[in-house]
Amino acid sequence: MRGMRRCLVLGACLLAAGAIHASSVIGLTVEDQARLSRFVVVGEVVAERGVDDPENGLETEVTLKVMSGLKGGARTGQTLLFHTRSGELNGEVSTAIGEADIRPGQKVLVFLEDIDGTLYNIGLSYGVFNLQEDAKGRFSVVRALQDGLEIVGGEDVGNGPFTIEDMRTRVSYAAKHPRFDNAMVRENLGEGR
Questions:
Q1: pLDDT tens across 111-164, in order?
Q2: Hey, what domains does the chain have and what are their CATH numbers?
Q3: Is residue 142 within 8 Å of residue 134, measured between CB atoms?
Q4: What is the pLDDT of residues 82-113, one digit of tens each?
Q5: How far apart (Å, rounded) are the C-alpha atoms in residues 168 and 68?
Q6: Which bin fits 124, alpha (ψ -120 to 50), beta or left (φ > 0)?
Q7: Which one in 53, 74, 132, 156 has a CA-CA gap of 20 to 30 Å to 162?
Q8: Cis? peptide before 54, omega within 30° of 0
Q9: What is the pTM of this model?
């Protein structure tokens, strides 16, 4: 089932030496992303480092200090480690086209799935939202979509801006209503987790 989820969410097309110009992910609603996530959190990136994963190659391990947990029991002040599918280590660089560009000091809302004991952001940059503050001190989030990411069948899911309270409400709704919105996900993974 983990392989099926990875295939459904990630899509295909990650790495190839210049031959691939896009990655594809299924356009999921915020609710479906929440249903697939172990954690949904708002936090500040405090560190990142390149790691060499034995199966996936170079990745980036991101340390996120939680500002607010929406799903999964993460508490304010706690740190979570998750991986992105691009990385740099000892001068070698590997880039997953369409992956989120995450840097220390950045504040994000991220949907994290557990793949074989390691947390990953769901759907490359599609599962990462940049936190924005307006002149009145109100926070909202907008998807951190990167060039080269093709969203398949997600015309109605929206990219924001969404208020944090709206995201909290949608994540809570997903927990109470496990039926997936996306028919393909529903067919392959069942009604819910």
A1: 999 999 999 999 998 999 999 988 998 899 999 988 888 888 766 778 899 999
A2: 2-177 (2.40.50.120)
A3: no
A4: 999 988 898 888 888 889 999 999 999 999 99
A5: 10
A6: left
A7: 74
A8: no
A9: 0.85
